[in-house]
Design a protein that fits this description.
Layout (H helix, E strand, L loop, with lengths): L1 E7 L4 E5 L4 H10 L7 E4 L5 H12 L3 E5 L4 E5 L7 E2 L1 H4 L8 H9 L1 E5 L12 H9 L3 E5 L2 E5 L9 E3 L5 H11 L5 E5 L5 H12 L3 E3 L5 E5 L8 E3 L4 H12 L5 E5 L9 H7 L3 E4 L3 E5 L4 E2 L3 E3 L10 H8 L2 E9 L8 H7 L3 E5 L2 E6 L7 E3 L3 H13 L2 E6 L2 H4 L5 H7 L4 E5 L1
Helix pairs in contact: 1-2, 1-7, 4-6, 5-6, 6-7, 10-12
Bound molecules: ligand EPZ.
The site of ligand EPZ has 23 residues, from helix 1, helix 5, helix 6 and helix 12.
Length: 422
C-alpha cells in the first residue's frame, strides 16, 4: 500500500488543471451500453474507479477500449450478451449498481450484486429498486444479487417520487426509462450537474428526456438509441477541493484551470464568504486568500446546496480560519471519520451526531494519519500541506479512486509530497 510523505508548510501558487469528473463519467459509461452502435466518451480521467467500471462493462461482453493518453473511452455494446454484474467487482465500486437500470433497458433482464456498505456506513439502494418497480420491473433477491426482469422484455414505464432525492437512484431510473414502452416521470429527481450531463448524453443518443436541471424529469421511451460521441464535464469536486486547499495558506495564489463555474452551485458564494478573492473566467478561477480567513459554517445538502463531497475539505480549512464554525452533513450523517485524524494533527474539532464544531486558527503539527475514504483522504493531504513538519498519510489508494495524478498536480503548484510504497 502506498503512503504520502508531506513536508509542510507550503502555499499553492501558479496553475493546476482539473481532470474529467469521476461522478459524471460513470453514468455516461453505463449509458453507452444502450446504443445500437459504439459510443466515444472524452475527458475521462485515469482513475481506479474508471478502470473498475471498465471491467464491469467487459464482463457483459461489451468491448471497452481506454485510450488513456487521450482520456478517451470507446464502448461497443454490440456483443453484450451476459447481463450480469458480479459481487467481486460491484463491491469495489458502488456506482456499478447503475448496471441494473442499463442492463434492464438493454436486455430486459439484469442480475446485479447488491453493493456493499462503504467507509462511512450504510448506503441503501431501496429507492433504486422501488423506482425500477414503479417502471414495471419485476425485482427479486437471490443470495445478495438483485434480479430484475422486464415483463415481455421491455419495461412499460411509470411514475416515481424520490424521498429523499438521490443521485444514484435518479441515474438508475433514467437508464431504465429511456427505452421503456411508455412515458415515465421522476419527481424530486436529483439536479446535480452529473445528472443533467447524463440526460444530455442520452438525448444525444436519441432519448426523449425533458425537464433537464429541474427536479421533475419526463422521459418518453423510445425503442432504439444510437451511440454518441460525448465530452465528460470537468470534476466539480476536484475543482472545489483545490479552491479550498489554496485558501488554507495566506501566501497561496492559485489558478484552477478547466473548471465549469456554473457547476459549483451555492459553494461559489459560500467560498467567497471566507474572505478569499476569487477571479472567475469561463473555465478557470484564481484564488487569492486573505491574511485572516473567516470561519463560515456549512450544511451539506443536495444540489445546488453545499456538496457533501466537499464537507471534509471545508472542515479542514476551518482549522486555519479565525473563529468557531460548524460543518453539518444532512446527506451522510456519519461521514466524519477524518475528524479524529485532524485531531492527531492538532485541530480543535468536536463531533456531535452529524455536526463537527471547529475552533481556529490552530497551528497544525505533522503526524501519521490514516485515510479512510476518498474525500477524507484528500482532506488529510490538505492538512499536511499547511502543518509544520512531516505528515504521513497512509492508505492513499483511497485517493487514487478519485483524484488523477494528485501529488504531481499539487507538487507542480509548490507542495512537497512524495509517494512511498510500503
Ligand atoms: C453519489 O452517491 C456520489 N457518487 C457520491 O460521491 C455523493 O456523495 C452522493 O451522490 C451525494 O451527492 C457517485 O456519483 C458515484 P445518493 P449516491 O443516492 O448516488 C440516501 C464521492 O466521494 N439514499 O444521492 O450513492 C442516501 O443514504 C462519492 O465521489 C437512500 O436512502 O448518493 C443519502 O443519504 C461518495 N436510498 C442520500 O440518499 C437509496 O436508494 C443521497 O445519496 C439511495 C440513496
Amino acid at each position: 500500500m502506498d503512503k504520502f510523505i508531506i513536508e509542510g508548510n507550503t502555499p499553492l501558487k501558479g496553475n493546476i488543471t482539473v481532470s474529467g469528473s469521476k461522478n459524471a463519467a460513470l453514468p455516461l459509461m453505463a449509458a453507452a451500453l444502450l446504443g445500437n452502435t459504439p459510443s466515444v466518451l472524452e475527458n475521462i480521467p485515469r482513475l481506479n474507479d474508471i478502470y473498475t467500471f471498465n471491467n464491469v462493462l467487459r464482463v457483459t461482453g461489451t468491448v471497452v477500449d481506454f485510450n488513456e493518453g487521450g482520456n478517451q473511452l470507446t464502448i461497443n455494446p454490440s456483443n453484450l450478451s451476459f447481463p450480469e454484474s458480479p459481487y467481486d467487482l460491484v463491491r469495489k465500486m458502488r456506482a456499478s449498481f447503475y448496471m441494473l437500470g442499463a442492463l434492464l433497458a438493454h436486455s430486459g433482464y439484469a442480475k446485479v450484486s447488491l453493493p456493499g456498505g462503504c467507509a462511512w456506513g450504510p448506503r441503501p439502494v431501496n429507492l433504486h429498486l422501488e423506482g425500477l418497480k414503479a417502471l414495471g420491473a419485476e425485482i427479486t433477491m437471490d443470495k445478495g444479487y438483485v434480479i430484475a426482469k422486464a415483463p415481455n422484455g421491455r419495461l412499460p414505464g411509470g411514475n416515481f417520487k424520490l424521498e429523499p432525492s438521490s443521485v444514484g437512484a435518479t441515474v438508475n431510473i433514467l437508464l431504465a426509462a429511456v427505452k421503456a414502452q411508455g412515458v415515465s416521470v421522476i419527481r424530486n429527481a436529483a439536479r446535480e450537474p452529473d445528472v443533467v450531463l447524463l440526460c444530455q448524453a442520452l438525448n444525444s443518443m436519441g432519448a426523449r428526456i425533458k425537464g433537464l436541471g429541474t427536479s421533475e424529469l419526463t422521459i418518453e421511451g423510445v425503442s432504439e438509441l444510437q451511440g454518441t460521441t460525448f465530452r465528460n464535464a470537468p470534476d466539480r469536486i476536484e475543482a472545489g477541493t483545490f479552491m479550498i486547499a489554496a485558501a488554507m495558506h495566506p501566501e497561496s495564489d492559485l489558478t484552477i484551470d478547466n473548471i465549469d463555474p456554473s457547476d459549483l452551485g451555492h459553494f461559489r458564494q459560500t467560498f467567497d464568504q471566507i474572505g478569499v478573492t476569487t477571479t472567475y473566467s469561463d473555465n478557470a478561477v484564481r484564488v487569492q486568500p486573505p491574511e485572516k480567513l473567516n470561519a463560515v459554517s456549512i450544511k451539506a445538502e443536495i444540489y445546488p446546496g453545499f456538496p457533501t463531497d466537499l464537507q471534509a475539505q471545508w472542515a479542514t480549512m476551518l482549522t486555519q480560519a479565525h473563529g468557531e464554525a460548524t460543518v453539518t452533513d444532512h446527506i451522510y450523517y456519519d461521514r466524519f471519520s477524518y475528524v479524529p485524524e485532524l485531531g492527531r494533527l492538532g485541530a480543535n474539532a468536536v463531533l456531535h451526531e452529524n455536526t463537527v464544531t471547529i475552533k481556529g486558527k490552530t497551528p497544525l503539527q505533522g503526524a501519521s494519519v490514516m485515510s479512510t475514504d476518498l474525500r477524507a483522504s484528500v482532506s488529510l493531504v490538505m492538512a499536511g500541506m499547511v502543518a509544520e513538519g512531516t505528515t504521513e498519510v497512509l492508505r492513499v489508494y483511497h485517493l487514487d479512486r478519485g483524484y488523477e495524478n494528485l501529488e504531481k498536480k499539487l507538487n507542480a503548484a509548490g507542495a512537497l509530497i512524495s509517494r512511498v510504497s510500503e
